[in-house]
Design brief:
Blueprint: H1 7-10, E1 26-27, H2 30-41, H3 46-53, E2 89-93, E3 97-101, H4 113-116, E4 125-128, E5 140-143, E6 159-161, E7 163-165, E8 169-171, H5 177-185, H6 191-201, E9 203-205, E10 208-210, H7 217-234, E11 258-261, E12 272-275, E13 280-283, E14 286-289, H8 293-296, E15 299-300, E16 303-304, H9 305-314, H10 339-371, H11 377-382, E17 402-404, E18 410-412
Antiparallel strand pairs: 1-3, 2-3, 4-5, 4-6, 7-8, 9-10, 11-14, 12-13, 13-14, 15-16, 17-18
Helix pairs in contact: 6-7, 7-10
Length: about 425
């Protein structure tokens, strides 16, 4: 569909990816993040602390910044900080890597507080991935965790929250869009229905991420059903549409991945590979099977997801990855493979395998949408829906939310 609207037309408020400024504030093991914090505050003098911290133009040991919304980290200057580590929180690194982050505004160059204000139970984030020519993969992934918005192999995309306010208030959709869809399709259109449609049909184009909108009720219903299953998989069961309340993704019996040969009891596996004949994932001397080819070959953001996940935990390094400087906080890394990582890996394999099975359905859906009646960008412009008002492209004001400012002062937003 050449006249398909852009994702930014449909979900007008978007935020740039987080810019951490220093890699040591994020990682796959919360215990290592605590060790890094303890090493920072235990530094012998100001020079040593500064070397460990790695100042930037946005953050130094003397920067005065407020708390991240919803977090309890202190706001005193880092030059004199001590005490316990801020409790690490779960976050999404890149398209599918669930990691941990130190939620301390003093440590992060651009933490995007406007995202933290709306990151609660009902919220879902649509992460627009940068295009990578000749590499397959989704244009949009969704997360119930706060995402950093990284697109590993392509240019950075944008983060589009589904709701503009905490508690699922005020959908981040072009005003009037849901009403037009309801009239044209002759059925209710809820915010999460449109997000499901977006996840099922969004694709890269020269004009950015575009979303074909169908005017065929049957195609819409099929797209929403497919998209809700994708949302369920992207969030590892966190989004419970379609009667899957609390259900985690699982492969059918006999196809579930298991550890067939244990991973090293000491140290970390140095290599990752795939045995196509036995459908086995090889991690050093460890072996997991069955792993369908679709899971091993699944790409997102320009990289093979399982390889990128492995490299983040072992320091094996990918293209353009530099090893951490000896003596730096980033050089404090896990030294052994944890049972938690094995569990996470089995779940990720399951998610990727189930996503790969849905790729043909997504391709067929996009063909049906392209061949049938459509709601194009011209119709949205004629209805006054596109472009969205300036206010809809900015974060909503949160007038009743108190946040601690620098040095313990309170700010009213």
């Amino acid at each position: 569909m050449q006249d398909a609207p852009r994702l930014s037309d449909l979900m007008p408020w978007s935020v740039a990816p987080l810019r951490l400024g220093r890699s040591w504030v994020r990682g796959p093991d919360p215990a290592v993040l605590r060790a890094r914090w303890n090493a920072l505050v235990a530094a012998e003098d100001a020079t040593a602390r500064e070397r460990l911290f790695r100042p930037s133009r946005a953050r130094t040991l003397h920067s005065a910044v407020g708390q991240l919304p919803g977090q309890a980290a202190p706001t005193g200057r880092l030059s004199r900080a001590g005490g316990p580590c801020p409790e690490p929180v779960r976050m999404l690194h890149g398209p599918f890597d669930r990691q941990w982050l130190l939620p301390d505004h003093r440590l992060i160059d651009a933490a995007r507080p406007e995202l933290w204000r709306v990151a609660d139970g009902p919220q879902l984030f649509a992460v627009e991935l940068g295009p990578v020519p000749q590499v397959p993969g989704p244009a949009v992934v969704c997360s119930a965790l706060l995402p950093d918005g990284r697109s590993p192999g392509g240019r950075p995309g944008r983060i589009h929250p589904l709701y503009r306010r905490p508690g699922g208030g005020e959908p981040n959709l072009a005003p009037g869009l849901l009403g037009l869809l309801a009239r044209r399709l002759d059925r209710p259109a809820e915010p999460v229905h449109l997000l499901a449609w977006i996840v099922a049909t969004a694709h890269h184009s020269p004009d950015g991420c575009t979303v074909p909108l169908t005017a065929d009720p049957a195609v819409w219903d099929a797209g929403v059903a497919l998209g809700e299953r994708l949302l369920w998989l992207h969030t590892h069961g966190g989004h419970s549409a379609g009667g899957r309340m609390g259900e985690r993704p699982r492969m059918p019996g006999g196809r579930r991945p298991y550890v067939r040969a244990a991973l090293p009891a000491r140290g970390l596996p140095e290599t990752i590979g795939y045995d196509a004949d036995d459908e086995a994932l090889l991690l050093g001397s460890g072996r997991i099977s069955p792993v369908p080819p679709g899971a091993w070959g699944f790409h997102a953001g320009g990289v093979r997801v399982l390889e990128a996940w492995f490299e983040e935990r072992t320091g094996a390094g990918g293209a353009g990855t530099e090893p951490p400087e000896p003596g730096s906080l980033a050089a404090l890394r896990p030294t052994t493979w944890s049972q938690e990582w094995t569990s996470e890996l089995l779940e990720l394999i399951t998610v990727l395998a189930l996503l790969a099975e849905l790729v043909p359905q997504g391709e067929e859906l996009r063909r049906r949408a392209a061949d049938g009646p459509a709601i194009g960008a011209a119709e949205l412009r004629a209805a006054g829906i596109v472009p969205a008002p300036v206010a809809a492209r900015r974060p909503a004001s949160v007038l009743d939310h108190h946040e601690e400012g620098p040095e313990g002062q309170f700010a009213l937003l």
